């Protein structure tokens, strides 16, 4: 820690926020420092200058400027997560710029275009899935995308696409104990009398819905909730968990380590 703060102090930088975590079980030390640099500071020059210090302590590190990351938001027919992201983006609280919205259906085109966002329809069938996924990668390149957000995008990404987007794609899904898969999960949950409804936002990996978790939101429910009421609670949880995960990622507060994350909130 002293090596980092001394490096910044010697260059006249002002430390605005500093957080650290000592993982004693894994024998690792995690650190996030936000600082105000002097005018004309170059990220590449900082990276080169800090390199010898990082080598001395066997550090992995990155410097980031204050540019807001650009998002590709992928959707299908459910609009609650997209609507929430748009609201936070317009209000300046998302921590990112929504560059483009893409979907395998046309249903949410009016929502996106009403917000002044470009909407791109990428139809997908089992036969055209490779071409559709290549189109998604083309959008990442074309719009200079930093993060792909699967805002209830109801398609399973191929293992190859997951690898290409490693650490750059976030998914949201409902969370139940026990887990209910398949059609009408909230009806299944109602039939089993669940007491908790929630949502999990995680990085996308080839292991379906099992990537490193960034955020989870949970709400207590009871026997008075209908399947529709459970779905409404679940949608609210999905919006909260996803927006937090996106903002924390875009503010560089999430450090991935294997199948887990350290989140400096």
From TrEMBL:
InterPro entries: ACT-like_dom_sf (IPR045865), Formyl-FH4-Hydrolase_C (IPR041729), Formyl_transf_N (IPR002376), Formyl_transf_N_sf (IPR036477), PurU (IPR004810), PurU_ACT (IPR044074)
UniProt xrefs under Gene3D superfamilies: 3.30.70.260, Formyl transferase, N-terminal domain
Reaction catalysed by this enzyme: (6R)-10-formyltetrahydrofolate + H2O = (6S)-5,6,7,8-tetrahydrofolate + formate + H(+)
Active site: 209
Stretches assigned to coiled coil: none
Enzyme class (EC, first level): hydrolase
Biological processes annotated in GO: 'de novo' IMP biosynthetic process; one-carbon metabolic process
Matching SUPFAM superfamilies: ACT-like, Formyltransferase
One term of GO molecular function: formyltetrahydrofolate deformylase activity
Keyword field: Hydrolase, One-carbon metabolism, Purine biosynthesis
Domain Formyl transferase N-terminal: 70-246
Listed EC numbers: 3.5.1.10
Pathway(s) served: Purine metabolism; IMP biosynthesis via de novo pathway; formate from 10-formyl-5,6,7,8-tetrahydrofolate: step 1/1
Pfam entry (one): Formyl_trans_N
UniProt cross-references to NCBIfam families, sorted A to Z: PRK06027.1, PurU
HAMAP family: PurU
Described purpose of this protein according to its UniProt entry: Catalyzes the hydrolysis of 10-formyltetrahydrofolate (formyl-FH4) to formate and tetrahydrofolate (FH4).
Family as reported in the entry's similarity comment: Belongs to the PurU family.
Identification of the protein by name: Formyltetrahydrofolate deformylase
Protein's organism: Nocardioides luteus
